[in-house]
Amino acid sequence: MRLLLVEDDVMVASGIKLGLTNAGYAVDWVGSGERAEEVLRTEVFDAAIIDIGLPNMDGLELTKRLRRPDMANSAMPVLILTARDALQDRVQGLDLGADDYMVKPYELPELLARLRALLRRSQAATSAVLAFGPIELDTANRRATARKDTGEAVPIELGPREWTVMEYLLINAPKPASKEKLLQALTGWDKEITPNAVEVYISRLRGKLEPYGVALRSIRGFGYRLELRGQEQQ
C-alpha cells in the first residue's frame, strides 16, 4: 500500500515514515500543502496522513481541496494527525472530508490499526483477514497462512514486497490486479523498482501458492489474477 505523509516537521515526519515503512507501507513525504496538492493531482495513493498545522495552506484546506472531483485521489482515505485537540478542529476536519482524526502524541499501534480500518473500508473489505480459497492474509497481525485439506493452517513466509503484492491480489480477487497498480504499491519516490521487478515477486508467489492449489495467472497487457487450480478462467 502506498501512503502520502504531509508533515512540515522533519523530525516528526521521519519518525512516522519509519514506523509506517517498518509496517510494510511505501511512504512518500512532502512538507507543505502546496506540494501535496501538486502531487495528488497526478499520482495515486491508497491513503494520506495530513497534519493540520502546515505553513501557508493548512491541512484543513488541503483536505477540502483533495475532495474536489478533478483530483486524482478525490476518494482516497484521509487521516488527520495533529496536535490540535479542540472539538471545533476535529469537527471541522471531519466535515471537510477527513475519514479519521488522531491527536498527537500518538501510539504507533493505534495509528496502524486506524490506517488498516480506513484501507479496509476504501476497498470494501469488512474483515482484517483477506482470503481466497485456502489462502488467508491476516493484515492486523501480518500473518499469511494456507489451510490444508485436513483443516491445518500452514504458515506462508512472505517478504515485505511479496506481502504487498499478495495483499493487492487478494483485495482484487477474483478480478485481476493491474501491473501498474502493483508497481505503485511497491515503490515510493526514494526507491527505484522497474516493471520487471513485479514479475520477480509474482514468480516467487507462484512457487509459494501452487502447492496449495492456487494459481497466479498473467493477463496479457494488464496484470495478474488469482485462480483456484482446476477452475482457471479462459
How many separate domains? Answer: 2
Q: Mind telling me the C-alpha Rg?
A: 19 Å
Distance between the termini: 29 Å
Beta-strand content: 15-25%
Oligomer: single chain
Stretches with pLDDT under 50, minimum 5 residues: none
H/E order of the elements? EHEHEHEHEHEEEEHEHHEE
Major beta sheet, strand line-up: 2-1-3-4-5
What does this structure look like?
The chain is an alpha/beta fold and 234 residues long. The protein has 2 domains: 121 residues, Rossmann fold (3-Layer(aba) Sandwich), CATH 3.40.50.2300; 100 residues, Arc Repressor Mutant, subunit A (Orthogonal Bundle), CATH 1.10.10. Helices cover 38% and strands 23% of the residues. The chain has 8 helices and 12 strands. The strands form 3 sheets. It has a 5-stranded parallel β-sheet with strand order 2-1-3-4-5, sandwiched between helices. It is elongated, with a radius of gyration of 19 Å. The model has no long low-confidence stretch (mean pLDDT 86).
